[in-house]
Amino acid sequence: MSTETPSLRFADLGLAEPVMAAVAEVGYETPSPIQAATIPALLDGRDVLGQAQTGTGKTAAFALPLLSRLDLKQGKPQVLVLAPTRELAIQVAEAFQRYANKIPGFHVLPIYGGQSYYPQLQALKRGVHVVVGTPGRVIDHLDRGTLDLSELKALVLDEADEMLRMGFIDDVEAVLKKVPEQRQVALFSATMPSQIRRIAQTYLREPVEVTIAAKTTTATNIRQRYWFVSGLHKLDALTRILEAEPYDAMIIFARTKSATDELAEKLQARGLAAAAINGDVQQAQREKTIQQLKDGKLDILVATDVAARGLDVERISHVLNYDIPYDTESYVHRIGRTGRAGRSGEAILFVSPREKNMLRAIERATRQPIAEMQLPTVESVNDARVTRFLSRISETLALDESSGGELGFYRELVERFEREQNVPAIEVAAALAKLLQGDTPLLLAPERKREPQDFRQQREYVERAERGAERRERPAREPRESRPEREGFTPRPKKDVGPRQPPDAGMETFRIEVGHMHGVKPGNIVGAIANEAELDSKYIGRIDIHDDHSILDLPEGMPKPLLMHLKKVRVAGQALRLQKLDEYDGSGGSAKPRGGFRPSAPRPHGAKPGGPGKKPPHRKGSSAGFKPKD
């Protein structure tokens, strides 16, 4: 079916009058592409196979037509919706309730694990028209005989690929085998892997296929930014953002359950209204926490991917990825928690040097650039703190004025203290402000640059590298040639790099003791040095990887403490043992330098490996690529 959306209005789709009244009440006018394509087919009783990304309006696409076809006189479930997570099941059930608020006597029941069976059993006995559940709990009720699907008219599989990913596909098939033969099936999935396609071919009858090809996988109304994790600790950076960035409510994503608990506790200790949800949190507590977020009693939710799936809280203005996700799809689902229903949203991503490739992969997958953000300065954080402190005074004065308040009593106390102690009122006010603030300083200390010992040189070598990067162009490498045999040596049996060009202006050449035999790749070396030296990777020059060592160019003038530190950094399980190439004496690695390597031009100081006029040092005995003299 074509994905082009005709210029339809909801009033043109043939929905039942009570459903249309609810649609008008929530403010819908024009159906989204998937709604325009799906609603007529479901109203006609056709099976539907829909492929669309999350956030395209597919819940309304199946809920509105199925509500229009309900028979309220029947007390057994007529519609069953399977969803991969508890949160999505609750969200879909709430959507049914919202769209049916003009249908008297309508009942919908979400059923999922982690909740007591008793309220679910009681509701099923009273009679419900729509059941929304997770596959495992639905199977439990079917096995107990407490869920009667004999009068089921329609089955919806929502986010089928997610149910496949979470291992629920066998349960889904078990449910499909237990529903009446004469029933309608609607299957919705963001992707169509072979197992989902097989289920569609097996259980759907001549379905109407609807494919909504999104131009991008993330909403354009979400501003995406990243902060490059440097020397400042992530928690300190997060605290600055929370203090200086205006937000209503925020979800912070961490990778592990323990990380969500730990981060929430640290934010609470800093006076922020934060809580964690993850797979270990009891369902009753999860629901209470989410309700607190909706009610404004909680501002920050720290969550894992699975725990936040399906959350739709209108207050969420920001999503912050404290830990970068492992795949691009998770990133899309995460930031989809904000910018809902056309509202604007903010997404912030913390990226470490080793995670740069993941950042680029996210940009390629979403086809949207992610802009680098500047961390709020100490000054901006302090300004925000002062503003909040002053606003508390203004709010207290305004509240007292409107309520005819109690400030008169405190005013008398201040005047009395002023008279008796002969202290100006302004000094009394300052003392009271300090008393209110307590032991926690109101302002952050001025930012001090990290320059221990002679790290001041680090700024200088970065500046030199920047100047060199602007004026240099990397020459193309010469083709590799087999090197002529020299007396006492044989050609290297393995691939090796060709003659090396002299370093570019502002650079010098180093040797590190890790190579092909250790399984190292250029990206491993760049990532380690960029991270440990807090140096942008664009300032790391050419890298030639040999069998047991590598040669690379770095900015001139690197401070000695940093060079000493880089000697100990490990890559591919090996210490780098970094040394300037023209100072290399053969002591850096497990093997001495080989005679097969000479720079193609004199080094900047005129020196050659092993010293001028000397043969390269070697050991007695044989090693790869070396044969002693006869």
Automatic annotation (TrEMBL):
Entry EC number(s): 3.6.4.13
Compositional bias per record (Basic and acidic residues), positions renumbered to this chain: 446-498
Domain Helicase ATP-binding residue range list: 39-210
Name of the protein in question: ATP-dependent RNA helicase DeaD
SMART domains in the cross-refs: DEXDc (SM00487), HELICc (SM00490)
CDD domains linked to this entry: DEADc, RRM_EcCsdA_like, SF2_C_DEAD
Residue ranges constituting the DEAD-box RNA helicase Q domain according to the UniProt record: 8-36
Occurrences of domain Helicase C-terminal (ranges): 234-381
Family: Belongs to the DEAD box helicase family. DeaD/CsdA subfamily.
Region (Disordered): 444-506, 583-630
Chain location of the short sequence motif Q motif per the record: 8-36
Catalytic activity line of the entry: ATP + H2O = ADP + phosphate + H(+)
Pfam families linked: DbpA, DEAD, DeaD_dimer, Helicase_C
Role according to the record: DEAD-box RNA helicase involved in various cellular processes at low temperature, including ribosome biogenesis, mRNA degradation and translation initiation.
Gene Ontology MF annotations: helicase activity
Cell location: Cytoplasm
Enzyme class: hydrolase
HAMAP family on file: DEAD_helicase_DeaD (MF_00964)
Protein keywords: ATP-binding, Cytoplasm, Helicase, Hydrolase, Nucleotide-binding, RNA-binding, Stress response
